[in-house]
Structures are given as structure tokens and as C-alpha cells.
Amino acid sequence: MTSSATHLFRLARWGITLARRRALIGIEDDPNAPAQVRRLARMARLATLTGKSGQRDYAGAFRAIGPAAIKLGQSLATRPDLVGEEAAHNLLSLQDNLPPVPFSQIEEQIVSTFDQPLDALFTHIDPEPVGAASIAQVHKGTTKDGRTVAVKVLRPGIREKFARDIETYEWAAAHVEAMGGEATRLRPRLTIANFKRWSFSELDLRREAASASELAEDMAGVSGYRIPEIDWDRTNGRVLTIEWVDGIKISRRDALVAQGHDLNAISNRLVISFLTQAISGGFFHADMHQGNLFIEKDGTIAAIDFGIMGRIDRRARQWLAEILYGLTTGNYKRVAEIHFEAQYVPSYHSVGEFATALRAVGEPMRGKPVKELSVGQMLDGLFAITRDFDMQTQPHLLLLQKTMVMVEGIATQLNPEINMWDTSAPYVREWIRDELGPESAVADRLKEDAQTLFRLPDLIRRIEDRFPAKGGAPEAAPLPEIPLMTERSNRNGGGWLGYFVAGAVGAGAVWGASFAGLI
Fold this sequence. Notes:
The chain is α+β, with helices and mostly antiparallel strands. It is built from 23 helices and eleven strands. Strand 2 and strand 3 form a beta hairpin. Helix 1 runs antiparallel to helix 4, helix 1 crosses helix 9 and helix 14 runs antiparallel to helix 19.
């Protein structure tokens, strides 16, 4: 297990990097941030002799820290409640691209993981990558049977580096959450836990291949949206081989227009395909940024890169659909009721007051194209509501929130006049009618009651196992409670002081080492 001193040294080094780019000033000035964290942020800024005035380069800071930080920064771009609106907006520009590693290392990865020479698998692989991201890089290749493919290979040592960094993220999040107050409501530990699960899934390319295959089955009946075919014979945990996509990146608006594509139709198709995945299937592509979407000659949207996928269970999807439909129709009372039914809002609050708060945010957005909306004002309003009504962060919906932001951004670039509510409403209305109508409700009730009936015998057996008949041995005496040293330290007030002093010493050591040219 990594020592606290190691975690503190890493955090101090990262803190210096963030402070030099003024990326900690938002935390330093945030009255909702724990006082200990604000003091450490100010200490890091002063240690680097950095003033408050000047550009705040959040994206550059995360990029300088390393691959795991790049992925974390992209996740935090959807959490203005955690990092602030300015930081979230800046992090949206954080591109996941790094200088490529030499092809000799890529070849070594392929050969070692398949235990076969390269020419036994491929006729040719272009040494120049078509893309180099923080986790892997992609090369164009040709298989022995003449098919053109994309070969995605993990960077050497990337799994180990992610594991080290995420361990420190977990350590830091646990200590911040223990400070209480707003830090506890925002649940940073669960945020990092979700980030860890997404990252480790992305680091197993077999999982990515399986996700692509599953999504292809789910979307088989949806016209105009396609998933490339997986080459399973040339895929394992460190190498993914997938059909090559010939198309124009969805970000190249001028090229799409020149080829005669209907941008309005593409933007609508993108929104509907996302809703189909998220609401109908509950399994969605959660990394739908511009570099992962291509438009083929016939206008079909072809998606790639399935390392990050999201899942939502059926009940949560029903709540989500009703919330979306309530917002599109202005039925704020029903939206408020769903938040209470889902236990997103504690029951001691008023449904009516929550509905009024939602109306104050929702009414200015209705009937307007995205380009006329003040996203900052909307987010300020939404996060003020969550704070006022003691809503805890819902980590299981973070991927959905992130993807919705991506989809909206791409759709708006294609068609600045698109109205997301109007585009979504017909689909959501039809799904609600099919899934929440009386026939569906009766069928669900019959199914649930039958399943409950069939579980009764097993339930009785488990109760008997838990509470067996008394035997000949007497019951064990209760054991005394023994307080742990860490708990005693915190009760005596020494815990956080120790961390604060250690943090100061660590920051000073890193500051001195940085000026000495050691780091």
C-alpha cells in the first residue's frame, strides 16, 4: 500500500503544476470549498510566486500532469459544481492527444501479446499513427485476407501509471470528503470511484471490443447509425482491431457541406441515436466527442472508440424520460415529484417549492435555439437548486450528463438553430407512451409479483440459515469496542493538523526541487 507521504508528495507536485497555471484560484476563492483545501491552494500559488491576475489554464495544467489527469480533467468538465463554471468550460477544450510512442514499441506490444510475429497477423501496418491519445494510439493496417483495419494498441506501461495516479486520487478524495459540509454532499469519493471504473474498463481493449459488439446489436434497427465490425482474431486486452471507417469527421463542417450532406438531418439523427441508446437501451456510447464520429458518403453516422460506455437501469431510465418530457412541456410539478420518488431530494423538502425552483431555471430555456441560451446562467441556477435542496451528486448519471453535453455541442455546431427540447420531445413522448402506458404497467406488475412469489422459498431458506435453531453451545459474549488510533487522532484534533503540516512540508520540498531543476 502506498504511504501517505508518497500521496502527499504527488499531490504537492501536481499542486505546483496547477498553481503555476493559476488553476487553483477558483478553489482558493470558492466559499463552499473546505477551508483546509482553500488554504492549501493559496499556499501552492504563493510557493510558485504566481499572482492572481492572468489567464487560468486549467486544460494546460491537466495536460502537463499526465495521461490519467487528462482523463480526469475531461470528466471534471461536466462537473461545474465541483470545479466551477470557468474551469469546466476551459476543460471542455482538453484534447486527449499526446506525442506518439515509437512504432518499435507498438510492434513489440503486438508481438508479445499475441506471441506471434507481426507478419503472421497483418500484411502491413503503417508506422505513422492516425491518432495518439493518452491511453493508446491507432495505426492503419491491412489483414492477411486483405481487409483494411484500424489497429489500436495500448501505450507501454499505461496501466501501471493509471493505477498509481488513481490511488492518489482516491486518497485525496477520501480526506476531502471527511472534511464534511459541501464536500460530503458532492461525494468526491464516488466521483473518483466511477472514474476509476471507467478508466480501468478503457484500459482493457477486450472490454471495448465487447462494448462495440453489444452496441451494434442494440442499434441494428436504427437507420443512419453504424458501429464498425470487430476483428476478434486480432483483438485481446492490449490490442483492438476494428474495421476501418472511410468518412469525414463530424467536426469538419465545411467538408460535409461540400460533399452535399444535410447538416440539419445529421444533427437530428445524432440526438435521436443518443436518446435511443440511453433511454431505450440503457447502454450508450459515453465518449461521443467530435473525433469519434464520422459521416460516411450516404450520410450514415459511424462511431468509433468504445472504451467508455454508460449504463442506466430501467427504473432510472423511466425517471430520466419523465424528467426530460416534463421539462419540454413545462410540467415542473411532475419533474419535482420524480426527484422525490427517486430520492434525489430529501423528503423533508417541499415538492411545491422544488417545482417553483425548477420553473425559474426551465422557463428561460424553453422554445429557444441553443445558441440563444446562457449555459452559464442555466448551470448557476441548476447547481444553486441542488445546494439549496440538499441534493447529493448522483454518480451513476455523471456519464450521461457528460455525453449529453458532448452531443449538444456537436449538434449545435452542425445546426446552430437546433432546439434540443423540440428535437427530443417526440421521441421521449413515444417512449413514455410505450413504456409507461397502462398495458406496460400491468405487465410489469404481473412480472414483478410472479418473480417475488418464486423467490419466497429461497428467502425462507436464507432466513433459516441466518437464524438457525439453537444448539448445545452457549452464545458468544459481546466484544468490547476498541477505538482505532486514527479515530483517536481525529477526535483529539491532530489528524487534519498533521495532514496540513505534511502538505506544507511536501509543497515546500517540491517547490525547492522545482527551482533546483530536479523536477
